[in-house]
Amino acid sequence: xxxxxxxxxWLLDGDPAVRWQxxxxxxxxxxxxxxxxxxxxxxxxxxxxxxxxxxxxGQWAGGAHFPAGFFDTAEAQGATQxxxxxxxxxxxxxxxxxxxxxxxxxxxxLDRNCRWEYDDMPFWGGEVDVCINAFTLANGAWLGAxxxxxxxxxxxxxxADGGWNCEAEEGDSVRxxxxxxxxxxxxxxxxxxxxxxxxxxEARHAGEEYxxxxxxxxxxxxxxxxxxxxxxxxxxxxxQYSALTALDxxxxxxxxxxxEPDERISDAVExxxxxxxxxxTWMQGAPLAGRTWFxxxxxxxxxxRWLTLIGTRVxxxxxxx
Length: 321
Description:
Elements: H1 5-12, H2 16-26, H3 31-39, H4 45-52, H5 74-77, H6 86-96, H7 106-113, H8 130-143, H9 148-156, H10 178-195, H11 201-213, H12 243-257, H13 266-274, E1 282-283, E2 303-304, H14 305-320
Antiparallel strand pairs: 1-2
């Protein structure tokens, strides 16, 4: 399906964080064009607003993974994760394409001032949760922090089936999970792209093989299709797995590795293709509950620029091959 001029114009009319990726990934614009748009992310729109919310000590909302004082509030009793603290804010800025230089000495300030809520551990050393460590590995590599502990951590904590599971650290599981494994893979790939260090590539490939054996959708134990989360397409996806986020990772990994799409993604591709509307857009799913700094995409049930960008580049990648 060829995207209409109207849909393309609508995408280009979005925030610079969306626009530069549309220019690069969908339109094949010259490097100078999309790079100029990308440079605007730190000074306009979403990127500028989130940078302005940073605390003087380098944190956001006064905490590493949760806002300061969160566990003493009624909000914590509802078990709803806020999305305003430091790790989540760094994730968004990095994924939006903000240049690390725009954050100045943030890495050093966080090294001095930010500790994990778990055991008061130093920020750039990570903690015990796979997803948190994946975010920290990617964010630290982007900002030039010392993440050597985490570079060693991921191969050491890979499970026998090839992936990762946050619950394994508490002794609650010996099987990998879709969510934890994808977050680990995304963190390791981002580390490799930022640093050029390929030492985690073998572990990453093993984790990707784990997802491919499951064809991105199915239980390894029974072959049954997993729950509805695989078809819950939403932006921001935060930590949550879906067929779309998995395919977008595999697309980026294939570009880095110089490989073609694996045939085992076909069922997931058809799931994404089926969600595409006749005008070439994808609809926003139910947003993940929790406090945010501000909205960055459409309300539920309306066309999503972010999902349309991601879905289109995934299908373009597959169809070109």
